[in-house]
Specification:
With 218 residues, this protein is of the alpha/beta class. Helices cover 36% and strands 28% of the residues. The strands form three sheets. Strands 4, 5, 6 and 7 form a four-stranded mixed sheet that branches. Helix 5 crosses helix 6.
Length: 218
């Protein structure tokens, strides 16, 4: 049985072999035998031809069709231009440490990597990249570096919840394992309080995961 990596290579080779398909702007991803075709083609006929070519490959279980038709008259945004626009936005946005984030673009798919101190910096970078024309998807691999002590994380989250006008800190419990994971429990009056508590948790340096088990009071 072929691995997903082997299947991906075979599908890419078949697309390159098919004369009616320009494979240059087509991305291929494979998960458990399911092939996802993304990117751009010049016509609907080429889109169908690419799908048929992928189906010919032995081992393909299913096709997820995410290609878009981009006519010759449509404005084109190349990978290099997309990358330049993203880095320019990062330069302008003071909340994004552009010197700590790497940007890679392949067939419109953006991969962000690097290490930052705050979760919101990673999230803001992802949001900013998603606004650029021509981006077909984003893989956010940015890591949050800081790992404060568990008590420090808990204290900062509780303080942040107290500052939020929408949340009652006395009804919310905060647990931190010291490795970036935070668990919130308790009972609040509405979703707005629950969201405020979760936002406060994500805003603390070193938090990489938030489990929100807060219950909405009936």
């Amino acid at each position: 049985m072929k691995t997903d990596g082997q299947l991906q290579q075979d599908v890419m080779a078949e697309l390159e072999f098919e004369p009616s398909v320009d494979h240059a702007d087509i991305g291929v991803a494979v998960t458990d035998g399911v092939v996802t075709l993304s990117g751009f083609v010049k016509s609907y006929a080429e889109k169908l031809a690419a799908e048929r070519a992928a189906r010919r490959v032995v081992g393909v279980k299913a096709i997820a069709q995410e290609m878009k038709v981009r006519f010759a008259s449509d404005p084109k945004t190349g990978d290099a231009e997309i990358a330049k626009r993203i880095t320019d936005i990062f330069d302008w946005d003071v909340t994004i440490p552009d010197d700590k984030i790497n940007v890679k673009v392949e067939h419109g798919w953006v991969t962000l990597s690097g290490t930052v101190d705050w979760h919101f910096q990673s999230d803001n970078a992802r949001r900013a990249a998603g606004k650029v024309s021509g981006v077909t998807g984003i893989s956010n691999l940015i890591d949050v570096r800081r790992r404060p002590a568990a008590n420090d994380v808990r204290a900062r989250i509780v303080a942040a919840i107290k500052r939020a006008a929408d949340a009652d800190a006395s009804s919310i419990n905060v647990f931190s394992d010291g490795d970036g994971k935070v668990r919130l429990t308790g009972r609040v009056k509405g979703w707005y309080e629950r969201d405020a508590a979760e936002r406060a948790a994500w805003g603390v340096p070193g938090v990489t995961r938030v489990e929100d088990d807060i219950v909405i009071a009936a």
